[in-house]
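Design request, tokens follow.
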């Protein structure tokens, strides 16, 4: 790790002493940035942007060049694994992602069971290697994946959903089919994250976007258990010994103790969870990442600065906090507001260390 000029993010995740609180932002490479929109236009479409390592590298570095952030995150999409499993991912303007061949029954799951998605995902590991090289030690690089439950949700629904009636229908009518699908995805995510680390990622994050739509019993069985298996398998790999793992369940504030017990290094918090409450619950078991409401960035500079102080105050003194938004940055945010946010964290956080 000697080649890292700024390792604050990794030290915070490991609860080592730090001089100030590190910050990065979910979806920091995205549509709010004019330079991102220009590269996206050059790519022609979103999937080409994801699948061209040079372009993925370019957009990953854009926020790092513009802001004094403490980590870069691979630019990709959470649906790369289902795409590699042959479901036919497509993005239509204004509609979001959808699949040509969604999973509807056991035979659909059996069709994908013995596929090796990593054969199709070389473009991701190529992007990781290139980004790591181009970063040249400026900040650490985060790799990521969607959680098995979140991937399964998209694969069964065929697209984004508000009611989740197909995947929840499967959960109650054919739980064995859903469990088989989650097993395939758990193995795939494990291999995928390990491959990203082999290619140069220095921390990994699992995004469980839809865990919060489940009851506690269903969450523990269908969302947390597969994530726990992934954490366990990754921690047993020698290449992963010093690589922190962050779990983030949107809407998961009620289950922080159970999440912390998986063996992960940190939990991401959305803005509906009080960070002081989360810290009181999990104690020293894990670090915490978050959790400013992304809509604060629509406020005035003074409002942003005050809200940053509140988050830092609520976490309190000491290491183990990575400042972030409670979810991805919105596309309509003024990029200059992000400068205000980052500078406020850098200005106010040394007092807490």
């Amino acid at each position: 790790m000697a080649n890292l000029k700024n390792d604050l993010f990794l030290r915070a995740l490991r609860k080592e002493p730090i001089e100030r609180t590190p910050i990065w932002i979910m979806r920091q490479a995205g549509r709010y940035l004019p330079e991102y929109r220009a590269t996206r236009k050059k790519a022609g479409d979103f999937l080409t942007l994801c699948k061209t390592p040079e372009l993925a590298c370019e957009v990953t570095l854009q926020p790092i060049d513009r802001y004094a952030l403490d980590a870069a995150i691979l630019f990709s999409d959470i649906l790369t694994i289902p795409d590699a499993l042959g479901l036919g991912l497509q993005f239509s303007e204004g509609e979001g992602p959808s699949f040509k061949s969604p999973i509807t029954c056991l035979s659909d799951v059996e069709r994908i069971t013995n596929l090796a998605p990593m054969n199709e995902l070389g473009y991701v590991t190529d992007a990781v290697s290139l980004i790591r090289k181009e970063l040249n030690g400026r900040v650490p690089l985060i790799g990521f994946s969607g959680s098995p439950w979140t991937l399964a949700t998209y694969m069964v629904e065929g697209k984004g959903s508000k009611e989740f009636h197909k995947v929840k229908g499967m959960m109650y009518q054919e739980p064995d089919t859903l469990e088989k699908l989650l097993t395939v995805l758990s193995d795939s995510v494990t291999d995928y994250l390990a491959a990203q680390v082999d290619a140069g990622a220095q921390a990994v994050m699992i995004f469980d976007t839809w865990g919060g739509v489940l009851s506690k019993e269903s969450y523990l069985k269908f969302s947390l258990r597969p994530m726990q298996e992934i954490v366990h398998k990754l921690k047993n790999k020698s290449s992963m010994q010093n690589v922190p793992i962050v779990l983030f369940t949107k809407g998961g504030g009620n289950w922080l103790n159970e999440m912390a017990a998986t063996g992960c290094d940190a939990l991401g918090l959305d803005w509906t969870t009080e960070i002081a409450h989360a810290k009181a619950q999990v104690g020293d078991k894990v670090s915490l990442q978050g959790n400013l409401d992304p809509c604060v960035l629509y406020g005035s500079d003074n409002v942003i600065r005050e809200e940053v102080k509140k988050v830092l105050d609520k976490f309190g003194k000491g290491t183990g906090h990575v400042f972030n938004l409670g979810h991805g940055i919105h596309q309509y945010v003024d990029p200059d507001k992000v400068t205000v946010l980052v500078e406020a964290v850098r200005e106010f956080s040394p007092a807490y260390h």
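Comment from the thread starter after seeing the answer: thanks! The two ends are 23 Å apart (CA to CA).
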